[in-house]
Amino acid sequence: MISNRLRAGAVLAAAVALLWSCAGVALAQGKKKEAEEKNRTLSGVVLDPNDAAVAGAIVQLKNSKTLQVRSFITKEDGSYFFSGLDPDTDYIVKADHQGMSSPQRTISSFDSRKRPVVNLKLEKK
Questions:
Q1: Which of 44, 42, 59, 43 is nearest to 94 (CA)?
Q2: Same domain for 28 and 46?
Q3: Residue 32 has pLDDT above 50, yes or no
Q4: Is 67 in contact with 56 (CB distance < 8 Å)?
Q5: Is the pLDDT of residue 17 over 80?
Q6: The CATH number of the domain where 63 resides is what?
Q7: Is 64:92 a contact under the CB 8 Å cutoff?
Q8: Cα–Cα distance, 83 to 78 (Å, whole number)
Q9: Do 81 and 62 sit in the same domain of this protein?
């Protein structure tokens, strides 16, 4: 009789632990989703002087608060993408490819768009 009670108690303890674990996962997913909703993304296309998409261009994104620089090499269609951007921070973006550069563009914290699109056009130096 005691061993049945012990087994029942162990099963109950395991069930409670599983419920707490599931609740923790759900809470963590909720916080992650909330953070993703607050963050911004930046995307665009790098173009050459003739307005053709440039594959292999290096796009640099600089955080104006931390001065951290992130880079992206454009895809075959000239596109680039950055995610997880703080909406309360200004960013500077530019592109370089084979001796050409685009003018720097600023993504302002005052710009309320969650998914701004900034196309960058390369110019000869």
A1: 59
A2: no
A3: no
A4: no
A5: no
A6: 2.60.40.1120
A7: yes
A8: 17
A9: yes
